[in-house]
């Protein structure tokens, strides 16, 4: 095992997700190492970089064995296996098909030329059956909605962008656990992918060490749209899983398949951080609100509220933002409790034909008014509301058609 890891080390990138071109470079330089890596079960201790690299090699093996078509998904060329499986072609778009066909042709020659000496690893790659094949064929294709793709670069803390394009993709390719069921009212709604990225990122795009005692979780809706991604505290009894995972999600999957997160519709020009500029994701039906830009971890308070706290141990442990979930419910509650300026809840509408502006404090008051938080969690909610009250801007802008659809469904 040590010798294999030494042979593949020069081909495994340390500052970005692996790509098909990296796997191709290993194949052309050291085929026996490529065959062995793909067919050998590795211990998790080898690190996420290597596990992710192997996942690409296995996806390549399945696509070549089963046959494939090449298509474009979210502005990204991909090879789709005829029996399942997906392989992002990346910067190999021009010669990827030739490479895959050459690998397929090699498989035919290995099967049909009698007396040709080949290694056991080569035979295993082309002819043996493996349990991981079914997992690869069930791989899911994830992506961002155009709305969320615009939001990521429009004023969120910079680390959220850099960790999306690296940490989130690593986790989807090499998860340590996958759960179905993110919502209390629907055990089948959404999926959570948990993993241990090999690095983290700051707001300037500089690579950092992965924080000790944390795992990374990526959340997707039932259609495969990713709407949230965060560091969360790890379970002290099983550091590969998030804390309180048994109560947070409905059902853990028996096996962890390798998926692919496509980000071809994501812009590369980041706007400056805009504190107090809340953003809404219709895919997750949630609001994200940051009044600080320090790299943070997420702490679930209850079904409706997740708070963000700094990862650094600077001594200042105040919340620097939050995620408010079930926004559709909150808006409808706010509309029910709407009163005058001095009582109840007031909704503020901006004279914009495209958007409805809502003070996020109104949503949180609706949350309190309805009595959703548990008594033990009320103090945290009040603390966040006090911090929000000091901000000049607390507006969340919802597309008017989204707001009107929420109201229509509640009618």
List descriptors:
alpha+beta, six-stranded antiparallel beta sheet, elongated
First-residue to last-residue Cα separation = 63 Å
Biggest sheet, in brief?
6 strands, antiparallel
Give the averaged pLDDT, no decimals.
Answer: 83
**How big is the Rg?**
24 Å
Topology of helices and strands:
Blueprint: H1 2-8, H2 20-29, H3 31-39, H4 48-66, E1 68-73, E2 76-81, E3 86-88, H5 96-112, H6 120-127, H7 132-137, E4 141-143, H8 146-152, H9 158-173, E5 177-180, E6 191-195, E7 200-201, E8 207-208, E9 214-220, E10 226-235, E11 238-242, H10 245-248, E12 251-252, E13 260-262, E14 279-281, E15 286-290, E16 296-300, E17 305-310, E18 321-325, H11 327-336, E19 355-359, H12 360-369, H13 375-389, E20 395-399, H14 400-410
Parallel strand pairs: 4-13
Antiparallel strand pairs: 1-2, 2-3, 5-6, 5-12, 6-9, 7-8, 9-10, 10-11, 14-15, 15-18, 16-17, 17-18, 19-20
Could you describe the 3D structure shown?
- The protein is an alpha+beta fold.
- The protein has 2 domains: 2-137, no CATH class; 141-410, no CATH class.
- The protein is 36% helix and 22% strand.
- The protein has helices spanning 2-8, 20-29, 31-39, 48-66, 96-112, 120-127, 132-137, 146-152, 158-173, 245-248, 327-336, 360-369, 375-389, 400-410, and strands spanning 68-73, 76-81, 86-88, 141-143, 177-180, 191-195, 200-201, 207-208, 214-220, 226-235, 238-242, 251-252, 260-262, 279-281, 286-290, 296-300, 305-310, 321-325, 355-359, 395-399.
- The strands form 6 sheets. Strands 11-10-9-6-5-12 form a 6-stranded antiparallel beta sheet, with helices on one face. A 5-stranded antiparallel beta sheet has the order 14-15-18-17-16, with helices on one face.
- Helix 4 crosses helix 5 (96-112).
- The longest helix has 19 residues, at 48-66.
């Amino acid at each position: 095992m040590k010798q294999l890891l030494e042979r593949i080390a020069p081909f495994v990138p340390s500052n970005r997700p692996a790509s098909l071109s990296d796997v191709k470079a290993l194949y052309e330089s050291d085929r026996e190492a490529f065959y062995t890596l793909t067919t050998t079960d590795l211990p998790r201790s080898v690190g996420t970089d290597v596990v992710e690299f192997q996942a690409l090699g296995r996806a390549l093996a399945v696509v070549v064995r089963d046959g494939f078509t090449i298509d474009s998904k979210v502005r990204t060329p991909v090879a789709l296996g005829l029996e399942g499986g997906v392989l992002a072609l990346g910067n190999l778009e021009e010669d990827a098909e030739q490479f895959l066909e050459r690998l397929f042709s090699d498989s035919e020659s290995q099967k049909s030329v009698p007396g040709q000496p080949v290694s056991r690893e080569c035979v295993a790659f082309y002819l043996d059956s493996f349990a991981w094949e079914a997992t690869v064929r069930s791989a899911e294709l994830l992506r961002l909605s155009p709305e969320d793709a615009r939001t990521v670069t429009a004023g969120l803390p910079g680390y959220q962008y850099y960790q999306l394009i690296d940490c989130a993709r690593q986790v989807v390719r090499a998860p340590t656990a996958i759960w179905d069921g993110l919502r209390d009212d629907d055990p089948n709604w959404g999926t959570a992918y948990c993993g241990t990225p090999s690095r983290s990122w700051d707001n300037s795009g500089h690579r950092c060490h992965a924080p000790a005692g944390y795992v990374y979780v990526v959340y997707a809706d039932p259609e495969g749209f990713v709407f949230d991604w965060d560091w969360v505290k790890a379970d002290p009894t099983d550091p590969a899983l998030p804390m309180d995972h048994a109560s947070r999600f409905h059902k853990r999957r028996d096996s962890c398949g390798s998926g692919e997160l496509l980000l071809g519709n994501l812009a590369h020009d980041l706007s400056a951080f805009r504190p107090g500029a809340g953003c809404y994701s219709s895919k997750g039906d949630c609001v994200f609100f940051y009044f600080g830009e320090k790299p943070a971890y997420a702490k679930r308070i209850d079904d409706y509220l997740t708070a963000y706290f700094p990862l650094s141990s600077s001594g200042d442990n105040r919340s620097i933002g939050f995620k408010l979930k079930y926004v559709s419910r909150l808006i409808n509650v706010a509309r029910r409790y709407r009163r005058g300026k001095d009582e109840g809840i007031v909704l503020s509408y901006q004279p914009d034909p495209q958007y409805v502006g809502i003070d996020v404090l109104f949503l949180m008051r609706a949350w309190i008014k309805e009595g959703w938080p548990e008594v033990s969690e009320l103090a945290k909610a009040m603390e966040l509301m006090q911090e929000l009250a000091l901000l000049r801007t607390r507006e969340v802008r919802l597309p008017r058609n989204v707001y009107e659809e929420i109201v229509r469904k509640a009618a």
